[in-house]
Amino acid sequence: MKKEKDAGIVYLVGSGPGHPDLITRMGWDALQNCDAVVYDDLAAFELVAALPERIKRYYVGKRAGAHYKPQDATSKLIVEIAERGLNVVRLKGGDPLIFGRGGEEITFLKNTGIEYKIIPGVTALSAVGAGAGIPLTDRRDASWVLLATGHEAVSGSPPVPWHEIARLKSGTVAIYMGVGDLPRIVEDLTKGGIDPKTKAAIIQSGYTGSQKIVNAQIDRLEKACSDAGIKAPAIILIGNVTEYSKELNWWKEGKLAGKRVLVTRPYKVSQEFCQVLRLHGAEPLPLPTIQIEPYTDDDGWRNVESALNKSGWLVFTSRPGVEYFIEGLWRRGYDNRCLYSFKIAAIGPGTSKALTERGLRPDLVPDVSLGSELARELARRIDNPQNTTVIRVRGDLSDDVIDNTVTELDAELVQVTVYQTVTPSWEPHWIKVVKENPPDYITFTSGSTVQGFVKILGSDDAVRVASESKVISIGPSTTAVARELGIKVDAEAKKYNMDGMIEVFLNNVNLK
């Protein structure tokens, strides 16, 4: 056990509701610099997926009364982690001190002597109001806002004085966690004397692609929600301001509204893809089935260093290849200037972008993002093979199409392996979520992502989950691996890159 002075600091961080970009800058910085994160369902999963691999993750989710870990157990877990000398972020949806049980966790930390800091977040109320075009206060209709919990009977909170609230005028009542108890709430408000024609709205999954708004007067609210299939998480708003959503609602439902998309690529290289999915209303599930790690190839690097005084081509077929190659140069005392005598080839737009971000402009990018196309184009441009050196930057699972082409041309081939692909471990609840509630779509961007998916879920479950989802492949080689493993493919990108994947989502009517 660590002494108290050696214990870490606990940061209670509000992640905001729904969209991952709603986290504050202070909260984001705390996340990136912590040693461990303890998170639940209401924190946007992309925030957890984006964390550096060194950060330990602990899931303590609870939603609608289905508790994965009791509150006391969660508090004890946070303390245990901090007592090991680790700085901990307790990541909570919305704001941790507004119906987030943050006060209970702070009290526990205070009593155990653990240092803590509180970083507020955008609360669900302000986010859903903004997303629905509802001004919570407006000098024409509402001069106050009242926040209440809708399931105090379950949570053990003091009773909400609904009868007194029913008599209040000229304001907005906001009810958190009230969907399950809506009939009782409406009954209590009615008994308290609220006008049955009082305007109200329920916003489900506010500020996400699944956002749904139902407007109705109080005496018809329960039926309207039932007809619309409203489910938690949702916030109930009562007051005349809810009428403004009909006029001021700016939220446009995207083509992928509410669709859950499993992204099996490492988040570091799929972040832009996830952002585009969100832009069109989808909810990305960035659960990588492969993990990219640096690879030590001392012989390869010695050969690269010997070749730097020659001329020819430097060939990249992936973003990680670019990243780890440039890092390798720097570790060995070189920078981009050492590559002045080499032309650069990139397999596609993603790899090309990774190069330009590092100050290198590719001379060759084939129209079709395939190794065979890159090899063909490269062969056309090598005029004097005997005096040409080709430095081939690889991963441990890269195919040999380009290497074989260079060898057949009788050019000098220098291979260096800069990264390796391994299968990551999914947390048990990730596996449970995917197995019990298959996503609407699954995206595979390489044969190794398919193999990792099967390895993580097991063959039978992987095939079953895929059969209940729409599977999208980035190209023929990925499709071939999927079919060999018994996984059907519903659509294949025409352009073998991430832009091609997005086009499938937006244009392929068979995926609806």
Topology (elements, then pairings):
Elements: E1 10-14, H1 25-33, E2 36-39, H2 45-49, E3 56-59, E4 62-63, E5 66-67, H3 71-83, E6 88-92, H4 102-112, E7 116-119, H5 124-132, E8 145-149, H6 152-155, H7 162-165, E9 172-176, H8 182-191, E10 199-204, E11 212-217, H9 218-228, E12 234-238, H10 245-248, E13 260-263, H11 267-279, E14 283-286, E15 291-294, H12 298-307, E16 312-316, H13 319-331, E17 342-346, H14 349-357, H15 371-381, E18 389-395, H16 401-409, E19 412-422, H17 428-436, E20 441-444, H18 447-457, H19 459-467, E21 470-473, H20 476-484, E22 491-492, H21 498-507
Parallel strand pairs: 1-6, 1-7, 2-3, 2-6, 8-9, 13-14, 13-20, 16-17, 16-18, 18-19, 20-21, 21-22
Antiparallel strand pairs: 4-5, 9-12, 10-11, 10-12, 15-19
Instruction: Give the C-level CATH assignment of the largest domain.
Output: Alpha Beta
Q: Give the overall shape, derived from the CA principal axes.
A: elongated
β-strand amount = 15-25%
The tally of domains stands at 4
Largest sheet: 5 strands, parallel
What is the CA-CA span between the terminal residues?
Answer: 55 Å
The CATH architecture of the largest domain would be 2-Layer Sandwich
Helix content bin: 25-40%
List low-confidence stretches. Answer: none
The helix count comes to 21
Radius of gyration: 27 Å
CATH superfamily of the largest domain: Tetrapyrrole methylase, C-terminal domain
- Enter the CATH topology name of the largest domain: Methyltransferase, Cobalt-precorrin-4 Transmethylase, Domain 2
Strand order of the largest sheet: 3-2-6-1-7
